[in-house]
């Protein structure tokens, strides 16, 4: 059985005496934390996608430039 000890100065926090972890018992704050975490995760994924798209565009522009050079040089 886990025994929780109130954290002095904050009624929403308790310490698990078995694991020594601090636990927030305020469900509203916890849900806000989860929402912020998911938002950051989505923003990071979006940023990675944009970076991949940019790398692909650079590569495609390089290919187009190469093809244009070949056309101009008559090869």
In a nutshell, what does this entry contain?
The protein has 1 helix and 3 strands. With 75 residues, it is of the alpha+beta class.
What does this structure look like?
The protein is α+β, with helices and mostly antiparallel strands and 75 residues long. The chain has one domain (4-73). The chain has one helix spanning 27-73, and strands at residues 4-7, 10-16, 22-24. It has a 3-stranded antiparallel beta sheet with strand order 1-2-3. A hairpin with a 5-residue loop joins strand 2 and strand 3 (22-24). It is rod-shaped.
Blueprint (SSEs and pairs):
Elements: E1 4-7, E2 10-16, E3 22-24, H1 27-73
Antiparallel strand pairs: 1-2, 2-3
Q: Could you say which structural class the secondary elements and strand pairing correspond to?
A: alpha+beta
Residue windows where pLDDT falls under 50 for at least 5 positions: none
Ends apart, CA distance between termini: 80 Å
For the largest sheet, list the strands in their spatial order: 1-2-3
What level of helicity do the residues show?
55-70%
What integer is the average pLDDT?
93
Order of helices and strands: EEEH
């Amino acid at each position: 059985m886990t025994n929780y000890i109130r954290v002095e100065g904050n009624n929403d926090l308790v310490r698990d005496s078995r694991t020594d972890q601090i636990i927030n018992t305020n469900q509203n704050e916890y849900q806000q934390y989860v929402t912020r975490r998911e938002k950051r995760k989505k923003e990071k994924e979006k940023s990675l996608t944009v970076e991949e798209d940019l790398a692909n565009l650079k590569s495609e522009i390089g290919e187009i430039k190469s093809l244009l050079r070949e056309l101009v040089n008559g090869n």
